[in-house]
Amino acid sequence: MSTEPICQACGMQYAVARDDCPICEDERQYVPQSGQRWTNLETLRASGDYTPRIEEQGPGIIGVGSTPGFAIGERALLVQAKSGNFLWDCAAYIDDALVAQVRELGGITGIAISHPHYYTTMVEWAHAFDVPIYLHEGDQQWIGRPDPAVKLWSGTTLDVAEDLRLINLGVHFTGGTVLHWPDGEHGHGALLSGDIVQVIGDRTHVGFMYSYPNLIPERPHVVRRAAELLAGYRFEAIYGAWWDAIVRTDGFEVVQRSAKRYLAQVIDEG
Question: Which intervals hold domain Metallo-beta-lactamase (predicted)?
Answer without folding.
Answer: 73-233
